[in-house]
Amino acid sequence: MSLKKMLLRRIAMAILPGLASGYMRLIYATNKKIFHLPENLPEEPIIFAFWHGDLLMQPLLYPKVRNHPHGKVMISNHFDGQLLAKTVAFFGFEPIFSERKHPTKLLFRALRSIKEGYDIGITPDGPRGPRHKASDGIVLLAQKMRVPIVFFHCVPSRYRQLQSWDKFVIPKMFGTLEFFVSEPIEIDALSFEEASQQIEEGLMRHAI
User: Fold this and answer.
1) If you placed Cys at 184, which of 4, 49, 148, 166 could pair as Cys (CB 3.0 to 4.6 Å)?
2) Sign of the torsion angle spanned by Cα atoms 167, 194, 179, 23
3) pLDDT tens digit string along 89-108?
4) Residues 190 and 146: beta-carbon distance below 8 Å
5) What is the DSSP string of 29-55?
6) Rg for the chain, CA atoms, rounded
């Protein structure tokens, strides 16, 4: 990596997460909010799942379902992932970083975090897609730990959508943010294929 690129990355790492978190709060503050929340959310750890393209407003939804937020998020350990980790840290989340050479370490770290009482946030189609296709990790984690899954959605009335692989959604100001949090589902008694299908169907219910 060139010296110039390293310098630009350091500047971006120092500035962008703060700007991004401020923008997220601005969007939240300038929109009307409608919440559809579950009636029976367990106090024990949950996996909260959302598509990668619906990521932006989820850190502001999580405190609505937990009186005492205690969550970590699974993030790929590359430059974009490190930017994301610093951004969500402004909302009280800790990252669980993956390693390309040792992907199973991510699962073990998530398992340990659940045992410690943390909720775990996952984008089942992240970090590279394919879009709206659940990866194996969420099924393995939920079945291994017998942890329920809760689906998070944010449906803005006004937004723009990037031409990225995940069609990333950026809400605009002065509209309505409609948030959906599903009742928890348990998949430990399902086959792997049935579990993946149920996860994808749940996440597609309010997908843009």
Assistant:
1) 148
2) negative
3) 999 999 998 766 666 778 88
4) no
5) HTSEEEEE--S---SS--EEE--GGG-
6) 17
> Nearest-CA neighbor of 145 among 195, 109, 106, 188?
188
Query: Can you tell me the distance from the alpha carbon of 197 to that of 208, in angstroms, rounded to the nearest whole number?
Result: 18
pLDDT of 154 above 70:
yes
Q: Are 87 and 21 in contact (CB under 8 A)?
A: yes
Q: Which residues of 38-74 are buried (b: 16+ CB within 10 A; e: fewer)?
A: eeebeeebbbbbbbbbbbbbbbbbbeebeeeeebbbb
Per the structure, how many domains does the chain have? 1
Query: Residue 22 is inside which H or E element, if any?
Result: helix 3-29
What is the overall mean pLDDT for the chain? Answer: 93
Per-residue pLDDT of 99-142, as tens digits, reads: 666 667 788 899 999 999 999 999 999 888 899 999 888 999 99
The domain of 177 spans 3-204
Q: Of 87, 203, 120, give the one whose Cα is nearest residue 155.
A: 203
**Main-chain phi, psi angles of 61, to 5 degrees:** -85, -35
pLDDT of residue 99: 67
The tokens of 192 are what?
């792997």
